[in-house]
Amino acid sequence: MNEGDAALACVSILIDELARAGVRHACISPGSRSTPIALALARDRRIRIHVHLDERASAFYALGIAKATGTPTAVACTSGTAAANLLSAVVEASQSRTPIALLTADRPPELRGTGANQTIDQVGMYGTHLRWSTDAPLPAELQGAAWRSLAEEAAARMLRHPPGPVHVNLPFREPLVPEGAEVDLGDQRQTATSRARESASPSRDDVERLVSALAGVERGLVVMGGMRARAGGVLSMARAMSWPVLAEPISQGRLPGSALSAGQALVSCGAWLRTHAPELVLQVGAMPTTRAAQALVASVEGLVVLDRDHLDPDPEHRASLTVRADPDETAAALSLELPARRPTSWYRDWQEADSVARKAMDDLIDSWEEPFEGRVARDLAAAVPNGGVLAVGSSMPIRDLDHFMAPRGGLRVLANRGASGIDGFVSTVLGIASTGIPTFALCGDLTLLHDAGSLLWSARRSHDAVLVVANNDGGGVFSFMPQRRLPEHEELFVTPHGLDLARLADTCGAGHERVEKANELIPAIERAASGGVRLVEVRSDRERNVERHGEVQAAVERALGSPGPLTREAGEH
Fold it and tell me: Is 350 within 8 Å of 276 (Cβ atoms)?
């Protein structure tokens, strides 16, 4: 039996089962040892192939597809350091509960540990970041039914809660190229497996404990962190209870009439918050992103956490009650038992202060002619067409979006906040764009440059994506952190690059436009949305940006009748 024919036949069973589980996209990087995997994927008509030069970019591209579509994707590569390049995306997929099947080719067992070319120890190389992994046998060693069983297990573990990455390491002997001979793998009938659906519903005990904790609390606040799906039921429950909602954009809950518009500004105002401290916070989803919201959650008398996805939404272990269940199903159950109340003075105070803070912010930043990074985030979020996605980078962009974005519907906000890295962001954006969803992105210059290779490879390949880049020549987030006081601040943390993004865009075949004035941004975004991959570069000065943030907060505090701004420091990434 030709080894190449046997390998293709066996891997085709694996791919068939992944397709049955919902895989419709596969990202492939070139390599010889992975020939059977690449051919099996390419020859399955249910699966769309995306070829990438760089394995890291390929994995983050797959991540973008999976996050945008909510369906699993596959990533295939050859052996050696090619497989090692997948690790950072594997970590993000694990932390963000994103289902990805990693298919890595490997040398046969007899070549491992011998110094054979392009051979490393790939077994268990992704460690605890996986939901499941296996070192598959050589193709000739198993019959079709066994390969089917292996594939079923991989698909089931990838999709079982919490979903995430699985790894199938596939060793092959040469020859790798099939000759077209038929291969008898024996009985390949689908096994009659039955997997019970894991319940996302809260238990009766959970509902009773939540009712006991929440009932009768008037001065309550809902804080919504990152979530994979919109929790409309939570918003409805909060309205019925007359509790304000502080919703991060990546919670998908910052909607008009439901969430505060300037909530971050309010909770950053210490004097106002001291007289409006909640008695209890219901935290839904991930831990808050900003230091101000984290401090609020850490200082509140009562904390209840409702979340199903995240590893630890309460890292300080302050919650008196944590319920691991679907937020919407839980809210629906609670709404049947918690009495609705008319808007209270507590609720009205927060809504009125929110309107005052929003007006103070907008009036001030609209008066500035030069671009301000907070306004860039606000205006981009408002400009994305209904049905579009806004992908937001880590560090300052996600914090600016959280602080300045006004509530709106018709928009999904996605981010790589599982591990909060900046690597692979451009690839993730292009993966989202490949699904046909109108795709816009906000990132910093270092985030763009960190993944410039993906732009070089993909910008000419029929993608439509608008990347708005805040270029302050380095890591602007560090100007908000204690490192700014170090003499090595500029050299070791800011790392100014001095690169011309227009020339980079031209080299990559991407469009480029530089915005010099604040009111030029939206017209530039509208022009960029005409097609292709286009960069809208907004230049800003790091120190001036810090000053402007302080001025905005001071304006809010004056409007609220508070004495002055607090010193705020951003967290890493």
Answer: yes
Statement to judge: residues 500 and 453 lie in one domain:
yes
- Among candidate residues 222, 233, 226, the one with its CA nearest the CA of residue 200: 233
Rounded to two decimals, the pTM is 0.92
**Structure confidence by residue, pLDDT tens digits, 398-438:** 999 999 999 999 999 999 998 888 899 999 999 999 999 99
Same domain, 453 and 504: yes
Q: How far apart are CA 468 and CA 375, in angstroms?
A: 12
Instruction: Tell me how far apart the alpha carbons of residues 313 and 22 are, in angstroms, rounded to a whole number.
Output: 29
pLDDT, tens digit (0-9, with 9 covering 90-100), for 525-556: 999 999 999 999 999 998 898 999 999 999 99
Distances (CA, A) of 573 to 145, 363, 557: 47, 29, 27
Nearest-10 Cα torsion for 101, 104, 108, 111: -140
Residue numbers of the domain that contains 437: 369-540
Residue 59 structure tokens: 């994995």
Is 73 inside any structural domain?
Answer: yes
436: left (phi over 0), alpha (psi -120 to 50) or beta: left
269 close to 359: Cβ distance less than 8 angstroms: no
